[in-house]
Design goal:
The structure is a single chain. It contains four helices and nine strands. The protein is an alpha+beta fold and about 160 residues long. The strands form two sheets. Strands 3, 4, 6, 8 and 9 form a five-stranded antiparallel beta sheet that branches. Strand 3 and strand 4 form a beta hairpin. It is globular, with a radius of gyration of 16 Å. It starts with 15 loop residues before the first strand and ends with a helix.
Length: about 160
């Protein structure tokens, strides 16, 4: 699957996409991905962990260029549907603002008739989001220092962000 933004992609009514300051809810995302035709719903939850490369983290701060990030989310769903025609629901929600250790930063859910397609589509969605969406995070460390990183840069640099 490849993501190209040659024209604006419109989201499907049955899907759900958001960039929000409010806390994310697993129950809400699951409900939005549920459909009577699903045989599987795969949910990926990204959580703020307490360290990066052994350095103690106390918080992460996320910022996003929302219009473009949402367009990337819409394109991800369109790409998934091009490769797997029987996808019923795609849900991608990402937080912004300062998050504490243990808080959910991103939720991706995909509902399909079969589990293999749901797993594959969910992994494609989170991997593509991390590479392509204009979302940045600032790591706040226990020693008082901090730094901004593009979440896509974490993937390409080999760092475990």
């Amino acid at each position: 699957m490849t993501t190209t933004l040659t024209s604006a992609v419109k989201p499907r009514a049955e899907d759900s996409f958001a960039i929000t300051f409010a806390p994310l809810s697993l129950e809400e995302i699951y409900a939005k991905s549920d459909d009577p035709a699903n045989g599987a719903v795969v949910v990926m939850s990204g959580v703020v962990r307490n360290q990066t490369d052994g350095k103690p983290v106390i918080a992460l701060e996320y910022q996003a260029y929302e219009p473009m990030a949402l367009q990337i989310f819409y394109q991800i769903a369109a790409d998934i549907r091009l490769s797997t025609s029987d996808v019923n629901r795609v849900v991608i929600h990402h937080r912004t603002g300062r998050l504490q250790v243990g808080e959910i930063s991103v939720l991706v859910a995909v509902g399909c008739p079969h589990r293999s397609e749901a797993f594959e589509a969910c992994q494609y969605a989170i991997d593509t989001l991390k590479h392509n969406a204009p979302i940045w995070k600032k790591e706040h460390w226990q020693d008082g220092s901090s730094r901004w990183v593009s979440i896509g840069a974490c993937e390409t640099s080999g760092e475990n962000c």
